[in-house]
Design a protein that fits this description.
Blueprint (H helix, E strand, L loop, with lengths): L3 E2 L1 E4 L1 H10 L5 H13 L4 E6 L1 H9 L4 H12 L4 E6 L12 H13 L4 E4 L7 H12 L3 E7 L13 H13 L6 E5 L7 H15 L5 E4 L7 H11 L3 E4 L13 H7 L5 E2 L4 H14 L23 H13 L6 H14 L9 H15 L7 H8 L11 H11 L8 H6 L6 H10 L6 H18 L23 E6 L2 E8 L2 E4 L2 E4 L16 E5 L4 E6 L6 E2 L4 E7 L2 E6 L4 E6 L6 E2 L4 E6 L1
Parallel strand pairs: 1-10, 2-9, 3-4, 4-5, 5-6, 6-7, 7-8, 8-9
Antiparallel strand pairs: 11-12, 12-13, 13-14, 15-22, 16-18, 16-21, 17-20, 18-19, 20-22
């Protein structure tokens, strides 16, 4: 009996990285494993988009477009390289206007991408219409996507088979062009029987020629079972990964899936011995990277508090950076209420990040005392229509705190009218910073904002966690050091006016000291950080007269911008931090005089 050949996309080098390492991986470190996977016969990889656009810029000090070029060069011209796009959000947490959505497709085509998997976390089909057309118009294959999860225990109203069928029929009614369709369960919580019935119904609607894929994670412990259910329902393709980025928060392992299909009517069409050899090469490539213990864990709590693998480790890495990892269990527990009251958008980026940010705020500041901007905008309609109506009291709180009225206007129409978004706004950011204006820089500035500008200015920072060997000490006459900053280890080598940090070279201009400006206007009051984070930008200067509540600076914590405001009217006596500095709770940031 001939077996059905199941098409495999290897997600190791995108979703695997995001789910296990928070996407913080240097491109040169994994190219040998990628080349080996191609030699082993894999011809379809997910390698770009999602967090693998911002993380190279934010944490690896690498240009995401250059990493995409290196990946294409490594695999050759014939391999299908796929990226992940978030509808109107493309590869950022914030939504974009039409010109940036089109530029995204144009540039990803230019830099080697073959296929874009395109989803909307709210399953608002209006957010897929223009983005889908741009993907096709720029010569890429479009994999339109419906996002899945299980609702928290005891909840109803969305995310059942009839709901997914309504989304599918809306896609068809909207005339969105697509080459394949995927069902993406980023939290790995969908019950296998629901997966089976959803795929089966989709096959009945689309017919035998449609290419249907299913994507999940092992976070809740049911990923492999869901994959088997998807195949029985009629799926043509599944997403798998390799060790050390498979299982746990990531996709099921290729070898595990191959084993589970023994004696069935399905065949992955792989050479298992070559895959095993590639996994050993991959493990060697990644041996120096810190492997968060939660990345390999199955967590039943996720079933009631759906937290995707990609968001889980990305956020725990940030919590470690900020010294608040002890709060993680409380934040996960707090997600249940946040999901319930948020309208049941799928827990996938950017909504999963909004959920996590709001849960984080509820734990750190008190329940609903501080609305996270993304979460607040979501319940107010600024990212589209949620599957169910959000809690009316939460909507009122968001409206008051953010100073925004609820809206039902199309997201792209809202963004086209926003003077702070789009190509024109990004171009001004580049010009103001004295940077070259080209398509790539425009997109980096528009998608990554201030941190993108800092990167392009050569002020990027390294936030990659590696387990580094001890280096030769200065006392022994060497010039190599292992330096720990906020618990993170960096391999530093000094050579004249050059410094190499974790393998990357920087120019060094060391001065005797930096004098902080300060003036005295009487007894001052310290302005302290309420949460740990990084200084994103400083809005005030020494000598400025401020009213109570005026913004002094903005911190970034957990991908949120947190304004630091003047506690009273007065004059800025001193600013004691600089842009890019990491600060801890209670640290003095500035002094305000009466």
């Amino acid at each position: 009996m001939s077996k059905k050949l199941i098409k495999v996309m290897d997600t190791s080098f995108r979703d695997g990285f995001q789910s296990v390492y928070g996407a913080r991986v240097f491109v040169e470190d994994f190219l040998p494993a990628l080349k080996s996977a191609v030699e082993a016969g894999i011809k379809h990889f997910e390698t770009a988009g999602g967090a693998r656009f911002q993380s190279p810029v934010f944490y690896c000090n690498e240009n995401a477009f250059e990493t995409m070029d290196k990946i294409r060069e490594a695999v050759g011209p014939d391999v299908n390289l796929q990226s992940l796009a978030r509808g109107v959000n493309v590869v950022g947490l914030d939504s974009q206007p039409r010109d940036m959505i089109n530029l995204h497709a144009k540039l990803f085509k230019k830099h080697g991408v073959t296929t874009i998997r395109n989803f909307d976390a709210l399953n608002d089909v209006n957010n897929l219409i223009y983005s889908g057309r741009c993907i096709k118009d720029n010569g890429l294959k479009h994999e339109v996507t419906i996002t899945m999860m299980e609702l928290p225990i005891g909840c109803t109203g969305a995310h059942d088979v009839p709901f997914y069928e309504r989304v599918l029929r809306s896609i068809l009614d909207a005339g969105i062009p697509f080459d394949s369709i995927a069902f993406k369960d980023a939290s790995g919580t969908s019950a296998p029987r629901k997966v089976y019935e959803t795929i089966k119904r989709t096959r009945e609607i689309l017919g035998s020629d449609a290419h249907i894929r299913f994507h999940s994670h092992e976070t809740a412990g049911t990923g492999l079972a869901a994959y088997l259910a998807a195949l029985d329902g009629g799926a043509d393709g599944i997403d798998l990964a390799m060790k050390p980025v498979s299982g746990g928060t990531a996709q099921p392992d290729i070898v595990s899936m191959w084993h589970a299909l023994k004696g069935t009517e399905y065949d992955l069409g792989i050479d298992i011995k070559k895959i095993l050899e590639t996994e050993e090469i991959f493990k060697e490539c990644m041996k120096d990277y810190f492997l968060p213990p939660e990345a390999l864990a199955v967590n039943p709590m996720i079933i009631s508090s759906p937290l995707p693998g990609g968001a889980l480790t990305a956020n725990t890495q940030m919590m470690r950076d900020n010294g608040v990892m002890d709060k993680f269990p409380e934040v996960v527990a707090a997600m249940k209420e946040v999901v319930e009251k948020g309208g049941f958008g799928t827990s996938v980026t950017p909504v999963s990040q909004f959920y996590f940010q709001q849960a984080f705020n509820n734990v750190m500041f008190g329940s609903w005392k501080k609305i996270a901007e993304g979460y607040g905008k979501m319940v107010l309609g600024y990212f589209g229509k949620t599957p169910c109506e959000p809690d009316i009291e939460v909507v009122k709180i968001a409206e008051e705190q953010l100073g925004l009225a609820p809206t039902k206007e199309l997201v792209v129409d809202l963004n086209d009218k926003d003077p702070n978004k789009g190509i024109k706004a990004a171009t001004k950011m580049l010009e103001d910073a004295g940077l070259e204006v080209n398509d790539e820089n425009i997109f980096i500035a528009g998608a990554c904002k201030e941190k993108g500008i800092m990167f392009l200015q050569g002020k990027g920072q390294i936030g990659v966690r590696k387990n580094l060997p001890a280096a030769k000490s200065a006392a022994a006459g060497g010039n190599e050091y292992t330096v720990k900053v906020n618990g993170k280890a960096y391999a530093v080598k000094l050579d004249g006016d050059k410094a190499t940090v974790n393998g990357k070279s920087y120019d060094v201009d060391v001065k005797a000291g930096i004098e902080k400006q300060a003036i005295s206007t009487g007894e001052g009051e310290d302005v302290k950080a309420g949460v740990p984070g990084n200084v994103l930008r400083i809005e005030a200067s020494v000598g400025d007269s401020l009213a109570e509540g005026d913004v002094i600076m903005v911190l970034e914590a957990m991908k949120m911008e947190i304004e630091i405001k003047a506690p009273k009217a007065g004059t800025v006596q001193s600013i004691v931090v600089s842009q890019g500095d990491k600060v801890v709770t209670g640290q003095t940031l500035a002094v305000i005089g009466g």
